[in-house]
Write a structure and sequence with these properties.
about 450 residues, alpha+beta, 5-stranded mixed sheet, 12 helices, rod-shaped
């Protein structure tokens, strides 16, 4: 029972039942006094009419007639008081009533007669100082009788409220139960679960949100699997190279004069592994939000110039475009250099012989801008929309042209975003891809 009352169904039933009880009580509190008042008004009006009739009938001097009138009135619990020469035939009437009737004034009032609340109707006779007064006890127990006549209707209303609450609770909780079951299946790994979008607007929105979540998880996990396959391939390739050369060295297959070249190949593959592992580590820390940053004022023109000089050693045809003056922004110079190195490495991987590579820095409207442009195969409009999604370009171009691990652009986007900047992919005037990084000016 306690568990039932803790649930939405139990609480909805309790609320509707309480509402029904309150409605019944309010109805009774309003209906009973109104009904009692109506009954009393009708009784007083009838008593006034009977007093007028009694005046006419009692005007006769025949005792037998008067006795029959008195007997008929007593059957209706009406007492008759005759007033002669300004005095009532017996005690009990309030003096003010006797005086008013004796003075020739009609009386229609309510007062205490014999200690009981009673209706009083009096009319004078034609004879001065005389008249008749009818007294009828005010309806005792009318409220109880009214309640007795309407209790069945009140009970039916209460039961109807409870039933309506149960139906309403069922109507409201059924979509929630579906959503809870779907969430449990999602937690268990079932991404195919879907909920019918029926019921109230809010329930339909909840079902639609869970359906969208399931679809998003399905897509995300598929991409995650593809990414892991790509990363595992990128890890296996240098590992296989290192293992092959290590086995060759162990077996004495490599001649002494080839040892230096072999060591250089092994060093290159080890550096490739180190970069991949480093990128994975940085990306995971960025997604966890715990990557340390050293934000300070940085001259983008000087930073781009330094990056250009470093890459000119491996690509002499690299062009650097910087303004004469400084472009000072607020950023982490080490992380921006990491972004620029990654973009340059991506460009050189696919750049045909003789194609240009440009590093540029300039001032923008709201921040300093760095561009990396190339004359390579570039990206399609569809590629631009997903360029910074982890592993997406790797999946599209694997086997078509040289590709990296699929981490570089995703890492660059997250680093720039963490530094408060923006990065965008586009088409370069040199014919290839262009990546534009904008960083906020120094405050």
């Amino acid at each position: 029972m306690r568990e039932f009352l803790r649930g939405l169904t139990g609480r909805a039933v309790l609320v509707t039942a309480a509402t029904a009880v309150i409605a019944v009580i309010v109805t009774a509190l309003v209906a009973v006094p109104v009904t009692v008042r109506s009954v009393n008004l009708r009784a007083r009006a009838e008593l006034v009419e009977k007093s007028a009739l009694a005046v006419e009938l009692l005007a006769t001097e025949e005792p037998a007639v008067r006795e029959r009138i008195a007997a008929g009135l007593r059957q209706d619990e009406i007492e008759i008081y005759l007033i002669r020469q300004g005095a009532a035939d017996r005690s009990g009437l309030p003096p003010r009533v006797v005086d008013r009737v004796a003075a020739g004034t009609e009386v229609d009032t309510r007062g205490l007669i014999g200690g009981h609340s009673s209706f009083i109707a009096g009319r004078p006779f034609a004879e001065a100082g005389s008249g008749v007064v009818l007294v009828q006890p005010a309806g005792a127990g009318i409220a109880v009788r009214v309640l007795g006549s309407i209790w069945l209707a009140l009970l039916a209303g209460l039961l109807g409220g409870v039933l309506a609450g149960a139906l309403l609770a069922r109507f409201l909780t059924r979509p929630i139960e579906f959503a809870a079951a779907a969430a449990g299946r999602l937690a268990a790994g079932d991404r195919s679960v879907r909920i019918p979008t029926r019921g109230p607007t809010e329930a339909a929105r909840l079902a639609d949100a869970i359906n969208q979540l399931a679809a998003a998880l399905q897509v995300s996990e598929a991409r995650e699997r593809e990414f892991l396959l790509s990363v595992s391939h990128d890890l296996r390739t240098p590992l296989a190279t290192l293992r092959g050369y290590a086995e060759a060295l162990t077996d004495g297959v490599i001649e002494a004069e080839d040892t230096v070249a072999t060591g250089q190949v092994m060093l290159t593959e080890a550096e490739r592994l180190e970069r991949l592992v480093s990128d994975l580590l940085v990306l995971s820390r960025l997604e966890a939000g715990d990557l340390p940053l050293d934000v300070t004022g940085v001259d983008l023109a000087a930073l781009v110039g330094e990056t250009g000089r470093a890459w000119a050693l491996s690509f002499p045809g690299l062009t650097v475009e910087v303004p004469d003056g400084p472009v000072t922004v607020t950023t982490d110079p080490g992380r921006i250099r990491q972004v620029l190195d990654g973009l340059c490495e991506n460009a050189l991987r696919v750049l045909p012989e003789g194609a240009p590579l440009v590093l540029a820095a300039r001032s923008g409207e709201s921040g300093g801008i760095v561009e990396v442009r190339d004359g390579g195969p570039g990206l399609t409009d569809d590629d631009l929309a997903v360029a910074f999604q982890r592993g997406e370009l790797n999946r599209r171009y694997r086997g078509v042209r040289k590709v990296g691990s699929g981490l570089g652009l995703a890492l660059a986007a997250r680093l720039v975003g963490r530094l408060g900047g923006t990065i965008a992919a586009g088409h370069a005037p040199e014919g290839g891809a262009m990546f534009t990084v904008e960083l906020p000016y120094q405050a």
